[in-house]
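Bumping with the actual sequence this time:
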Amino acid sequence: MTAFPEVATDPGVTRQVLADHPELMVVAFRFRAKGAEGRLHNHPHVQSTFVKSGRFRFSVAGTETEVGPGDSFVIPAMAIHGCVCLEPGTLIDCFTPRRDDFL
């Protein structure tokens, strides 16, 4: 197993790859401050998000939803999405196929 470093992404947000395979990647995103953002973006990967802790307001394809610990959802490939941290916490994201840009 390879230990991947935690890297800064957006202000108040870090990313750490937890597991990696060409067909699947598991990543922890840690939001350290209320108001920190995962900016709107899209990618060709299907993404599954599990809220380990904290509260977030997600926008997925123009629909806003508030989520908290234990919630999970899937973001289709190419859907524009992002979030705002309402309470500091951690998101566990799975991507298929792997996000080579995170390596």
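The tokens above came from a reply further down the thread. The mean pLDDT is 96.
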